Backbone:
């Protein structure tokens, strides 16, 4: 019996994140709405190419194939009207994605409906939609263009997170950004090592993933042939002595991740190139400039590093 949506890990996704809509968007910008609608109608039976977040969504939905409770739900939030959005749902059907719920908003921003669908994440390629969502307290990320290829035979879902400004708030990061004094930052974090940081925008997403992993662990204990489908990592610029406060925060929330990397200023792409996540979340563009050339990457425009 499927879980009610309140108990699921729900991801809300814009069609611009799930599929490659660059050609259609170009027609909209250069020729206007009528030409865009005509283009989508004329090609409605031609499946759209996969977008940056497609591998992540496909792997996420595969969890429902082995769990009869169907703990994952993906909801489409589209700026299209239902008529021009028909091509998106036909593409979803073509790729066999288990997405049945959606909203078509006829040009309006979809972020207002994130909580209505109990979503722990909203993904879009529309910068303004993501920024508004974050400013209004919703968990959101901007997918960045990527040239990375996808392996449909890869059955393991790998998700990687930065820590400060993503899973935790920017309290600690703010000290460093405002003073530029690394020694002062380390001293502050050491003094407060036993005090958990407040939640960041994607805290609930990791908690929901961790809950599914606990279910997988029990299944693996009961069946030695079962291989868990999810692997998580935190890749942070923190290093000792600032590492302890991060561990304290995760313990406080009862969360365990599979792999943790304290980079201390090293380029995160070194780890990403090995871990190969299906999606990587970071709040700082400087890290994502290289990451997006290696793995599908998402900018979380939260906190001090994203203030205008």
Residues:
């Amino acid at each position: 019996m499927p879980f009610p949506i309140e108990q699921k890990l729900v991801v809300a996704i814009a069609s611009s994140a799930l599929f490659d809509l660059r050609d259609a968007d170009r027609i909209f910008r250069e020729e206007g709405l009528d030409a865009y609608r005509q283009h989508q109608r004329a090609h409605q039976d031609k499946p759209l190419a996969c977008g940056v977040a497609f591998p992540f969504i496909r792997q996420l939905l595969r969890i429902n194939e082995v769990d009869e409770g169907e703990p994952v739900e993906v909801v489409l939030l589209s700026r299209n009207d239902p008529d021009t959005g028909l091509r998106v749902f036909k593409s979803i059907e073509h790729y066999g994605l288990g997405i049945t719920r959606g909203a078509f908003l006829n040009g309006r921003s979809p972020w207002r409906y994130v909580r209505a669908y109990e979503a722990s994440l909203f993904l879009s390629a529309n910068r303004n939609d993501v920024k508004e969502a974050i400013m209004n307290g919703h968990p959101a990320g901007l997918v960045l263009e990527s040239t990375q290829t996808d392996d449909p035979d890869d059955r393991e879902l790998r998700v990687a997170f930065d820590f400060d400004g993503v899973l935790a708030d920017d309290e600690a990061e703010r000290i460093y950004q405002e003073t530029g004094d690394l020694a002062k930052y380390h001293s502050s974090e050491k003094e407060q090592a036993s005090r958990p940081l407040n939640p960041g925008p994607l805290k609930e997403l990791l908690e929901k993933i961790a809950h599914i992993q606990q279910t997988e662990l029990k299944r693996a204990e009961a069946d030695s042939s079962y291989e868990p489908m999810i692997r998580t990592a935190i890749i942070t610029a923190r290093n000792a002595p600032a590492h302890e406060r991060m561990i304290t925060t995760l313990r406080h929330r009862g969360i365990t991740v599979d792999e943790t990397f304290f980079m201390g200023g090293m380029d995160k792409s070194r780890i990403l190139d090995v871990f190969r996540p299906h999606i990587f979340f970071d709040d700082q563009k400087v890290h994502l400039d290289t990451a997006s050339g290696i793995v599908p990457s998402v900018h979380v425009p939260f906190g001090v590093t994203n203030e205008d």
Summary: Residues 157-306 form a domain with the Rossmann fold fold (CATH 3.40.50.1000).
